[in-house]
Amino acid sequence: MVSNHKVGGGRAVTEYRHPLLARINPYLVCLRELPDPHARRRVRWTPLAASLAATLMALDAAGTLGVRCEEALVCLGADFARHRRVGRTYNGLAKALTRQSQTVLPMVKEELRAHARRVMASIPTTAGWTLLAVDGSKEDLPRTKDNEERFGIGDNGVFPQALVTAIVEVHTGLPWDWRIDKASVCEKNHLMEMAADLPGEALLLADGNFVGYPIWSALHEGGKRFLIRVGGNIGLLTGLWPEARIERHRDIVYAWPKPRRRELAPLRLRLIRVGSKSNPVFLLTNVLDHRRLSKRAAGAVYRKRWGVELFYRTFKRTMGFAKLRSRSGVRAKVELEWGLIAATIAALIGIESLAAGRKDVRRLSPAALLRALRSCLMGGDPGAHAHRAARRLREALGQALRDRYRRRAGKDSRHRPITKHTPKPLKLKPPRIRRATPAERDAARQNYPASAA
Known about the structure:
This protein has 453 residues and is of the alpha/beta class. It folds into two domains: 190 residues, no CATH class; 204 residues, no CATH class. The chain is built from 13 helices and twelve strands. A hairpin with a 5-residue loop joins strand 1 and strand 2. Helix 2 packs across helix 10 and helix 11 runs antiparallel to helix 12.
């Protein structure tokens, strides 16, 4: 809990009395000596103070942003109020966060990614892989003119929405990277932006929204491994190089867009069929070695993709970000950014706490984790009993574990009876596969002879 640096721009403070600040501070270490990059005068909300307040507000469960700000100030008062360096209003905090966002947010996200890379080493692998999953979700916004102009009307056709595309570690719900944009933007574009920063040892899991030669080739050329569900909306080729040794495996297929075959080389992939005969699932991967990813392992691994759906449920429902509260488009984006940063910091705190107690970090319970953090936040200034508050928080974090209950039947809703308007279960058609023609094989040998190796 020791922190030998200037807090909030005031004189040196050698200890965070509030245990929650002591837990959050190591993940914002990059902001210790950073001045306000755009302020022309002395400010009360320095980047470090504003970032701590924004993180506390995102973890809070209060209804309005103003109340969240007041409760964050009570928590900050344990260390900041003595030096009279922190602002006292939400409007001042929001202005500071907006003003500092272009400088502070990239630094904080890079710092969190470094911490995430380190803690992932403590998460046991599945079939030899570190599993990351990508998916998108839309967040509702207040119906204001500014939000509509910045984000546009969502699929509902009524109120504005923001699209969040996140890459998440599937066991713990630890966010690795994310993008925020208009509701009309394609998730695949976000993934192509984030692909370069994926860890090399990871296997990326995705559903049928992330299909197509451009995104597969971008991942493959960057040395990233993926396992993606595909359906009848894609076409694949077989037998492009019958003489190649690798084509003796029946699951080898090629993605080669017909309009641009003179510019783009065929992309060799592996199509894996898992599931039952009545409801098969088709998975496409660039891991061609059966020993590295067997058919059975592929089916087990892909089921772990559900972890990204659980992350969004936690973010929207448990943390309360199903609908944002900012009425300005710029502030709404800042609110969403700090919500995701707070979710990352919370997951890092939970993982490190369980790892310190030699417990399985894959059993981290996001709900229990947030209860522990919120209980500490609402405790206010611990004063002379800081060591007791820190011990209670440490004990609560060490017990933030999921139970071992295993569901034996399907989860049916009691409140939604089946009617004629109830949508039928989604059943993807198999991908369209055909054997390459002699002309296509000749073109592949002439233009891309090295690909046959």
